[in-house]
Amino acid sequence: MKKNLVIFTFLICNFLFSQEKNDSIPIPKWTIVGKSTFLFNQSSFSNWASGGSNSVAININVNYDFNYKKNGWNWDNKITTMYGLSYIDEQGVRKTDDRVEYNSLLGLKAKKDWFFSFLSNFKTQYTKGFNYSKTPKETISSFFSPAYLNFGPGMLWRKSKELFINIAPASSRFTFVSGQFSGSFGVKEGRRTNFSLGFNLSSYYRFTIIENVIMENTLALYSDYLDKPQNIDLDYQINVFFKINENLSTNLGLHTIVDDDTSNKTQFKQLFGLGLNYIFHK
Question: Does the structure show a pLDDT above 60 at 159?
Fold first, then answer.
């Protein structure tokens, strides 16, 4: 009996000690997730009566999230980089995608789902862009031409990491170009930078449509108080992921840009293909 009592007492003490030890494990301040996606699509024709051109297209996307959360503070950082090429018979290799972007959203809890916030955004591209409709092809952009830096204080409504809206009513934006592109992208002739002050609204919403089908929406709106405030810049991206397994998915991406400093027409891009996904840091 005494032996059983000793064993029982030992087990209880060990259980209580284990619980105390587990409770004392600190909650990580930082969460870091990295994900890469290789997107591929291909068309091939041989003696096809209705005609067609052989084509191959690849896109590589790398996303890195660094998020901090403690004592009412939230600091979400996201680095997005993507590059795409396609090969079409008789046209050769052409660039289909080129983007590097950093987003930072710092928030201090105010009340319930509301936070005082500070938004920062930087984006540019890696390589030259061309207008292939002209012969010879015309260079229309390059690395750091253009580059955009946007930042400002505001208020953040954050329901969860899957749904938030940030409003920055006094957001500064700088546009940078090289001397070659002076006079383009809203930068005046003879200058290499342009400053604007305006209203910025950015939002993110990710949800499951049906099992294994996820939609991601990213929206950014900007109105420049100093120059044609009625012309609102829009950058809207939709990504739909049809999950096959942990490493394979079918991806559909739609991207719409309205920016009269870049083009007087609505810019639209669509990508669709088989994606190979790999999470390399979690």
Answer: yes
Task: Give the residue numbers spanning the domain of 244.
Answer: 27-281
Alpha-carbon distance of 257 to 205, in angstroms, equals 18
Q: Is 210 exposed, middle or buried (0-12, 13-18, 19+ CB in 10 A)?
A: exposed
Asked if residue 14 belongs to a domain, the reply is no
Q: What is the CATH number of the domain that holds 184?
A: 2.40.160
Per-residue model confidence as pLDDT tens digits over 256-267:
999 999 988 999
Give the predicted TM-score (pTM) of the model: 0.86
Closest residue by Cα to residue 38 from 281, 276, 278, 279: 276
Chain centroid to CA 255: 11
C-alpha span between 135 and 132 (Å, rounded)? 7
Nearest to 161 by CA among 102, 234, 213, 216: 216
d(CA 106, CA 70): 12
Q: What is the pLDDT of residues 41-70, one digit of tens each?
A: 887 777 677 667 788 999 999 999 999 999
The 8 Å CB, 24+ separation contacts for 13-19 are: none
**Side chain identity, residue 125:** Q
**Number of domain units in the chain:** 1
Identify which of 97, 88, 89, 65 has the alpha carbon closest to the alpha carbon of residue 78: 65
Q: Six-digit token pair at 222?
A: 């900007």
Find out whether 185 and 140 touch, Cβ atoms under 8 Å: no
